Amino acid sequence: xxxxxxxxxxxxxxxxxxxxxxxxxxxxxxxxxxxxxxxxxxxxxxxxxxxxxxxxxxxxxxxxxxxxxxxxxxxxxxx
Length: 79
Description:
Blueprint lengths: L9 H27 L3 H4 L5 H15 L6 H9 L1
């Protein structure tokens, strides 16, 4: 059964957000691991543009000190 955001309980909404984040991180991790274990043939290939842009943003944020530890991230999610 599909619900609108307005009809979700806070717990249901939190679970949806957590699931979405988990899935996105899983995809990102898979892409990173694939990139690290690529074959010689794959080394010549470029990253998908959206992944390359995401990775560049992450590197820039890390270099600028715009990072967050896991515990703080979890606390923010629960608020």
